[in-house]
Design brief:
It contains 10 helices and 11 strands. It has helices at 9-15, 61-73, 114-131, 144-154, 160-174, 216-227, 236-249, 254-258, 260-280, 294-305, and strands at 24-29, 37-43, 47-52, 91-93, 96-102, 183-186, 195-198, 201-205, 212-215, 229-230, 233-234. The strands form 4 sheets. A 5-stranded antiparallel sheet has the order 1-2-3-5-4, covered by helices on one side. The protein is 41% helix and 16% strand. It folds into 2 domains: 9-102, Phosphorylase Kinase, domain 1, CATH 3.30.200; 114-305, Aminoglycoside phosphotransferase (APH), C-terminal lobe (Aminoglycoside 3'-phosphotransferase, Chain: A, domain 2), CATH 3.90.1200.10. By secondary structure, the chain is an alpha+beta fold.
C-alpha cells in the first residue's frame, strides 16, 4: 500500500455520492507498501479502505474484488467490497480504477509465536477450501512467467554472484513440474503485515491484490518463509505448528510433501525478484517504502543450500 495518486477530501466526498455510505468525516493516507494508493475512509455510516489501483490491469481487478466477496460470504475474515448505487464494486477516482472495502479491526503482529502460526495455518487451509468454489480464473500474476521478465530487467543491476544465484534458481525452477498439486485461488502475499489480530485471533486477512490461481502449497511456502523464520532458516516449533494446523483442516498430499523444498525456493525467488525490481526500477510516488531485497536473497540461498524440514 502507498500513495501515488493524491485524493483531496473534496474529490473523495464528491465520489462518495455514488455510494449509500453517508457523508465523509475523514480520510487518511496509508503509509505502507509499494503497489497501490490507499486511504482509510470514515463516513457517517462506517469505516472503509479506499484503494486506487496504480498498475494492475483493469481486466484483472474483478477477479480480486469478487474473490474477496466470495471468501467473505464463506466466513473468511477478509475485506468485503462495497457496491456503489449502480451495483458495481469498481469505479474511477482521479483517473484511476478505485474500490472501497470494509475496514477490519485489529493490528498486525510482528513477533509470532507457535500459537499464532497455528491460527494462521488453520485459517489459510479454510481459505483454500472456500476458494475451491470460486469459478473465476487468473493465473498467478507473479508466477514463473513474471519471474523471467523481472529477472531480465534487474540483471544489469546485479553483481556477478547475485546474477549467478538468480540464473541458477531460474534454471532449477524451470525443471520443476507440479501437475498433481492441488490448485485454486491463493493469496500469494500473506505476510505478517497483511494479517490483523484481535484478542489472539485473526480478525482480518487483507491485501488480496497479488492473488491468483496457483498451487495451494505455494501459498503455504510464502507464509512459512515469513512467519516461521529464524534468521534465514525456518524455526522448527513455529513451522510444526503452522503446517500441523493447516494439515488438520486440509490434509497435505504426498505430492505436496515431495514438492515442499522446491516451493519454498519458488516463494523466496518471487519476493527477491519483486524487491529487486522495486529497488532498481521504482515508480515516482509519495510515501513509497521499498523493502530490502537482501532479506529474500539470504532466504533463497538458505533454501537452496540445505533441505528444509517437513514437520506436519
Amino acid at each position: 500500500m502507498s500513495v501515488f495518486t493524491p485524493v483531496s477530501e473534496a474529490d473523495l466526498a464528491q465520489w462518495l455520492r455514488n455510494y449509500s455510505l453517508g457523508e465523509l468525516k475523514v480520510s487518511e493516507p496509508i503509509e505502507a507498501g509499494i503497489e497501490n494508493t490507499n486511504y482509510f475512509v470514515t463516513t457517517t455510516q462506517g469505516r472503509y479502505v479506499l484503494t486506487l489501483f496504480e498498475r494492475l490491469p483493469a481486466e484483472e481487478l474483478p477477479f480480486y474484488l469478487q474473490l474477496m466477496a466470495h471468501l467473505a460470504r464463506h466466513g473468511i475474515p477478509c475485506p468485503a467490497p462495497i457496491a456503489d448505487l449502480s451495483d458495481r464494486y469498481l469505479g474511477v477516482l482521479n483517473g484511476k480504477p478505485a474500490a472501497l472495502v470494509t475496514r477490519l479491526p485489529g493490528r498486525s503482529l510482528q513477533d509470532p509465536h507457535p500459537a499464532h502460526c497455528a491460527e494462521l495455518g488453520a485459517l489459510l487451509a479454510r481459505m483454500h477450501l472456500a476458494g475451491r468454489s470460486y469459478s473465476a480464473f487468473l493465473e498467478n500474476p507473479r508466477g514463473p512467467r513474471w519471474w523471467r521478465l523481472a529477472a531480465r530487467d534487474v540483471a544489469p543491476f546485479l553483481d556477478d554472484a547475485k546474477r549467478k544465484l538468480l540464473e541458477a534458481e531460474l534454471a532449477f525452477q524451470a525443471e520443476q513440474r507440479f501437475p498433481d498439486l492441488p490448485r485454486g485461488p491463493v493469496h500469494a502475499d500473506l505476510f505478517r503485515d497483511n494479517t490483523l489480530w484481535e484478542d489472539g485471533r485473526i480478525s482480518g486477512v487483507v491485501d488480496f491484490y497479488f492473488a491468483g490461481v496457483d498451487c495451494f502449497l505455494y501459498d503455504v511456502a510464502v507464509c512459512a518463509n515469513d512467519w516461521c523464520l529464524d534468521g534465514a532458516g525456518l524455526q522448527a516449533e513455529r513451522l510444526r505448528a503452522f503446517l500441523g494446523a493447516y494439515n488438520a483442516v486440509r490434509p497435505f498430499t504426498a505430492h505436496e510433501r515431495a514438492a515442499w523444498l522446491a516451493m519454498l525456493r519458488a516463494a523466496a525467488l518471487r519476493f527477491w525478484l519483486s524487491r529487486l525490481y522495486d529497488l532498481y526500477l521504482p515508480r515516482p510516488g509519495m510515501l513509497v517504502h521499498a523493502h530490502d531485497p537482501e532479506h529474500f536473497r539470504r532466504i533463497l540461498e538458505a533454501r537452496a543450500g540445505s533441505p528444509a524440514p517437513w514437520l506436519a
